[in-house]
Amino acid sequence: xxxxxxxxxxxxxxxxxxxxxxxxxxxxxxxxxxxxxxxxxxxxxxxxxxxxxxxxxxxxxxxxxxxxxxxxxxxxxxxxxxxxxxxxxxxxxxxxxxxxxxxxxxxxxxxxxxxxxxxxxxxxxx
Length: 126
Known about the structure:
Layout: E1 8-11, E2 23-28, H1 40-52, E3 57-62, E4 66-67, E5 84-85, E6 89-92, E7 99-104, H2 109-114, H3 119-123
Parallel strand pairs: 4-5
Antiparallel strand pairs: 1-6, 2-3, 2-7
């Protein structure tokens, strides 16, 4: 994702489909080229960035506590929406900067940081 000249983006959690309860984070890709994409070091640095909740890094949605705007089931699945709707988040990011998105299903970014040692096994399907 590239941020335009203003650096301002709006993010809104609209629909919660599926039973996952995890985090979605946003982090600047500045400096991330020092790590191989998908490597434990890349994941660790991305998680550190997201967990810092500083100007260039944010947890956008924590599905454990944040509710989506729209709440209803679909023909093929139940309504999994729970928590408190947070509204639209307005983020002031660095202009003309590329960002990555990190999805952590059924966990949190902070748990990823504490359990980085499990990623090599996860990537090989063990």
